[in-house]
Amino acid sequence: MADTIAAISTAFGEAAISVLRVSGPQAFGIAEKVFRGVAAVNELKPRYQHYGRIVDAADATIDSVLLCLFKGPASYTGEDVVEISGHGGILVTRRIYDLLLAQGARAAEAGEFTQRAFLNGKMDLTQAEAVMDLIHAQSELALKAASQQLEGRLGHEAEQLREDLIGLVAHLEAYIDFPEEDIDPDTGAAMVARMEGLVARLQALLDTADHGRILRSGARTVICGEPNVGKSSLLNLLTGVDRAIVSPQAGTTRDTIEEMLHIHGLPFRLVDTAGLREHTSDFIEATGMERTRKELERADVIIEVVDGSQEKSAAQRVELPAGVEQKHLLVLNKADQGVHESWTTEIAIKLSCKTGEQLETLRLAMKDKVWSGAGASSAQLVAINARHQHCFMTAKDAMQRAAAAMQEGLAPEFVAVDVREALQAVGEVTGRVDVEEILGVIFSRFCIGK
């Protein structure tokens, strides 16, 4: 790229320091015009902090700063990069930024530094996306997943798939293009086995999509039950704050209340809902109950709270939407008053919101509901996002069609078309294809200066 960009890379507001970045062919020249230190900028040692002053056109000091040079390609963007660390005042930082623009830099667009890193071969698309995940990480596991992706773990998995697909395409096309060379296209069974192996590997990556969504957005956890069984008390107990109003009067909670918390490194988005009962004449309460039913349909975890001290037959149980049984946890609240013997056959957590008894049991059960199976190992953490999911699903569908075509005895030309489609889809994950159309979507989510 011919132009040079600049941005304030730290958050807006007052702080101890602020950092400004300049990247491009004129970065060192612009720094030379505004920096006064012990030597000319081109004589300073790269990757070291150098003390000096930022001055304006009249050589008046704007700020005392530390300046660090990164000579391309050994820099974040692969270009010459200058980083200026100054005092974190809003006005002084803005004056330095305006000065850099006046000396020939262009204001960077959102995500443009990382986009240049990708275009200059410093990282693949999965690593570029991991930068944003790292910035937004809200839990230990989300941070670890982003770090592993930034190190190239997901990119490596995709590249291994891509290399194997290239091998398949090359074998098929050699057989098609050079029939006189008597190239063996593999026996049908062997080729199908190779394809089914690729399908299985693609499915293993697809199985991590839910984990990725939960790490990025939190597991949506709905607390439900009939009025006055302790739903709001449970929300307050889990969060450790009095977030919801607790009252012996039924129908106190009229609308959904959301709160984020972290359990064993995982983010959970708790939703306290209006109590469900068969009839109510209160329009607001009825509206809240309808919202509760909608929340149940999109929940990752459903915590049904009942009064365990009362007889089971007296409890009004929640009617769960079809297909969510595996997300359901039954909590018998008020265990400090004793659990009624009629609940003996139920698989449930006996909890007291008053004393906190068995709270950790509930926390562990919540984690197990959302963090198990493929991709859940903290040592082998891969968590694909929605874009990766679309690419891998496209590749999987294409490979399944290719395997079916082989089994049906269709000509290799038909099989090769599907394998090429799978190769294209997997290549899009890391950017090993023409990706101009998807660059704008990916990098538009970045903050200015990153």
Q: What would you say this structure looks like, in words?
A:
The chain folds into 3 domains: 5-108, Gyrase A, domain 2; 129-208 and 383-443, Four Helix Bundle (Hemerythrin (Met), subunit A), CATH 1.20.120; 214-370, P-loop containing nucleotide triphosphate hydrolases (Rossmann fold). The protein is of the alpha/beta class and 450 residues long. The radius of gyration is 29 Å and the shape is flat. Residues 249-255 have low confidence and may be disordered. It has 14 helices and 13 strands.
Question: Could you write a compact summary of the structure shown?
Answer:
The protein is α/β, with parallel strands linked by helices. It has helices spanning 27-34, 90-102, 112-119, 125-136, 140-150, 153-177, 188-206, 209-217, 231-239, 283-297, 359-370, 386-407, 412-430, 436-443; strands spanning 5-8, 15-23, 35-36, 49-55, 61-70, 81-88, 106-107, 219-224, 257-263, 266-272, 301-307, 328-333, 349-350.
